[in-house]
């Protein structure tokens, strides 16, 4: 009797067959992906030699002169790849999870010894002796060396560093996900008796290597898939076409620069400024993406232009001054003049729209002294000016000057209290009088001083004035009496700033003298006071002390270049608002006094830092802002400085979470504060001429391998570049900055970066 087939078993068998078929299709698909991703790095016609010895850090490669010639030579520090994969073979099949399914990336460090070196040298020496005196034939020709010997002596060793391993993994580590190329900065195993074939990557293979980005190191950002071209691969100073690397473009991801620290080091005239222009232009161009699928992005950028080379047109780098000026970048793609805003201490005829780095140091007349918020808003520029003065006078060792720097003129919260308001208004009046004594012109709204306080009462009590008029010091009694009359609110209509400053000088002498009678007055005042406070609080005492010294007003006069009586806004806040709009701001510091430049930059940086910090604390994503500091040793704290509260140090350490990026350029690595260096993610290194600087550089990544090249190669624009998302250093010839401007003077769009050739 025949048993009927089980339908469920048949279904199960078909299911297993379908699974096997799907698995086979998946395997074949992954074979194709493996060949495409890993196989692209291994180029058959670029075969060079074999691995001879290796460990976890170094590899000795045996090469032959014939292969050297075929691949166009092997420059120092060039890339090589080593692998057992040979994807061009018809039967080439491999599983991407197998150990051999990987490609080692090597960097050539120099020659390596081989076992036959001693004997080889003896043979060469004998051939060279035989050739001595013959001017027409070299010792390696057939006259002196037979073919077999020449062939054997053509083998040599190359010492290579293991840069890392290219291998495959699934995107996001998802089961069944697409394969992607990954990179590890080491090797996970080696077999001393298992050879790898070595190739010199060129064209597409070298392009993959030079532009590889590790997804795990790439910040999650709307720009994470965008890249911009900065130049092409260059291995050595002797850069000959036969090497086959000049047409391999190098791109960097702008997202690596945002909220990160970026360093540009090198001697003058080696390409730092050109590189800065290339970077700034690339970030600016993000507002008009080439791919319509990419959303436009406006990133605020500010350049502290110490030498005025970005804010002004000049011939540095090109005779075409208009195309060489970064300030004209808005013309390249049909932008507007308001996209690029320049600031400076003066307004040149060539830049009539330049904004001035000035404030009204007197502030505005408060609308309501009893309202702390309105008072703080109206006196904002006065407080800013006092803060700038603090920076300008920070190095003065005089005790009275240090006391003055500690005076706090910010509005207190309890201004409705008559006593508190009177004390505060008195301090503001004295500070303004000190400014006029220093030669600063008050604004039209404050043409004359006002000694009236709350309820129109005088800011100087009648009992104080009576004490001055009744001073027992006969030698100064008349002087005290005149000053008392000037300070009397009854005479406010005839009071001028000059008269007030003279009266305050006398008041300062009255308070400081033991014989003036002030001590008795003050003792009685304290006894009757509800708070037990003296008539002159600490702020008033320190302000009056400035009137007693001739250098007091002279020192305050250093604020004059920052003062514009008709100004109504703080330049730092204006700049911050420009950056929030995604504009490019260039601060021209050329010709300015170093202390003024430093104070202005510090003021702007605090506005940026605190502004983005407020957004972060409020739970809002801060806007990306990129800060460039040219001649950074003039603004950033020196290497020996250890003030962790400095705004530059805080920006370096905390700027990432506040979305503030910092790009700093200078000649000396050792001149930069260590906390800033330690937090630097991106590096652009050109020629440095001494080992003191390269010794500092050796502390970071594997720049030690490039030390000799950095010391010797002086070619302009030849940089070694390490980016955040690229796990190794690339040697790059940076393209020359030159804007592609319309010939007619009418802004027009362009479709390329405007590469005018490499900087040589």
UniProtKB/TrEMBL annotation:
Biased composition (Basic and acidic residues): 11-30
Pfam families (alphabetical): DUF87
All copies of domain Helicase HerA central, residue ranges: 246-314
Annotated stretches, region: Disordered: 1-30
Domain of life per record: Bacteria
Protein name, UniProt field: Helicase HerA central domain-containing protein
Source species of the chain: Deinococcus aerius
